[in-house]
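Q: I have 263 residues here and want to know how they pack in 3D. Can you give me a structure?
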Amino acid sequence: MREKELLERAFAMPVTSPAYPPGPYRFINREYLIITYRTDPAKLRAVVPEPLEFNERQPLVKFEVIRMPDSNGFGDYTETGQVIPVTFRGREGGYSHCMFLNDEGPIAAGRELWGFPKKLANPTLRTEIDTLVGTLDYGPLRVATGTMGYKHREFDLKQAKASLEEPNFLLKIIPHVDGSPRICELVEYRLEDVILKGAWTGPAALSLTPHALAPLADLPVLEVVSAIHLRADLTLGFGKVVHDYLRQRAGKSVHSTETSDVL
């Protein structure tokens, strides 16, 4: 393989059989269960990276389970995780704290392209008679169970669509060949071309079980605040770097050296 050909094909690994195709990535009939709960602000303070900020007086976490039956390049899969409402330079959005899913393609693409904190596990989202049920199993162990009354009341579509279109933030870390960080960035992305097909709310409950490698329970459920069930078509937009930690550190080091030289 000549160098020119290599560079033309080098968008993902392995180069001869990439784990995922090039984007854009369109999702049809995405289904969400989102349970928002209040947690311990000290626990949030330990995991939300600067310069993101969260509301100390209303420390919230969103437990999300997302069913994706028709996804360009990725197929049919489900994911779950925790998203923390934050602000970045005065703009409201969500910080993806952890994600678990059952499909290798979007795990590789999510980590390599955007910096999604994705790990392999087995989430599910299904309707059991009159209840919407979202679960997460890590190996043989049940880590999370979220339940919501099925379509008890319609939710405001405009408000739901606006929440999907808010900016989202990710901490992207890619190591160098010596194990040191080569990329350490705060990435912003958005969901685009959203077609909201329905939104509902109802009573909800959430149970999290401690697990060493899937530590959702480290952000404990103190009170369930709200729940929403959504169906939508959308495109996962590519990201942009909004804060480069390594460049900031290098800049501070240079400034520090210059200051000491002057002194």
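Q: Anything worth noting?
A: Confidence is low (pLDDT under 50) at residues 254-263. The CA atoms of residues 151 and 200 lie 5 Å apart.
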